[in-house]
């Protein structure tokens, strides 16, 4: 009986030990693993000494900005405005004294061929040392540069200037009332014309015909009806100015007219009256005798 009990006890113990095994796959006769007294620490994966840092995702490269439009080129500098041409001028010399001798040569030892009163003007040809060579009586004369000054006028059209130049050539030619006309008013030349003397209307007739081929009538009264009327405040270089005189002052209509002159500008006229052809200022008395002005060019 005791023997039976031992067998049963052994069988029971064997079953208990088998049921407490770690795994169903562990055989009863296998050697059990060593169990340490120290608690088991959890294990972690090893960290490499130089961990590779994951590359950051490449950010998209910024797009190149749209190219700026090219700056407009500086405009080419404008050429400087051309200077307005200065008006051509007519230069005359004016006597600053009364009785200035016009000599045949450049020196006081030469004979006098005429005189200039104060404010009379002539056309210079050239300066010869201390003397001016001038055009006088349609020839050459000389005046001392010490007794003259230069006066300038703005020039007009070519035809007007040609008329004035013809008049300058005759400065100093004697005045003779009723001197022969250059033509008969229609351009037909007068065979008796000599050119050695002029009165006011014959002088105007001659210089307008030779300078601009304009036919003026034979007297100042007839000439005052030619061309276009010009108000006194609008007269200009080349206009004909008409005046009365002492003997005609009380007449009426065109019969009042007794004198004609060519206007040069700045109150200066070219004419002949009582002595010789001259360029001079309009005197106060003559200005008070003014009647009308005409423009024929």
What does this structure look like?
By secondary structure, this protein is α+β, with helices and mostly antiparallel strands. Helix content is 18%, strand content 24%. It contains five helices and 13 strands. The protein has helices at 2-19, 158-169, 200-212, 220-223, 284-288, and strands at 89-95, 100-103, 112-116, 121-128, 131-136, 139-144, 148-154, 228-229, 240-243, 259-265, 268-272, 277-281, 290-295. The strands form three sheets. A six-stranded antiparallel sheet has the order 8-13-9-10-11-12. The protein has a five-stranded antiparallel sheet with strand order 6-5-4-1-7, with no helix packed on it. The chain has a two-stranded antiparallel sheet with strand order 2-3. A hairpin with a 2-residue loop joins strand 4 and strand 5 (131-136). The termini are far apart. Mean pLDDT is 85; it is low at 16-31 and 35-39.
Give the integer mean of the pLDDT values. 85
Task: Characterize the biggest β-sheet.
Answer: 6 strands, antiparallel
- How many DSSP helices? 5
Radius of gyration: 63 Å
Q: Name the poorly predicted regions.
A: 16-31, 35-39
What is this entry, summarized?
With 297 residues, this protein is of the alpha+beta class. The protein has helices spanning 2-19, 158-169, 200-212, 220-223, 284-288; strands at 89-95, 100-103, 112-116, 121-128, 131-136, 139-144, 148-154, 228-229, 240-243, 259-265, 268-272, 277-281, 290-295.
Note the topology:
Layout: H1 2-19, E1 89-95, E2 100-103, E3 112-116, E4 121-128, E5 131-136, E6 139-144, E7 148-154, H2 158-169, H3 200-212, H4 220-223, E8 228-229, E9 240-243, E10 259-265, E11 268-272, E12 277-281, H5 284-288, E13 290-295
Antiparallel strand pairs: 1-4, 1-7, 2-3, 4-5, 5-6, 8-13, 9-10, 9-13, 10-11, 11-12
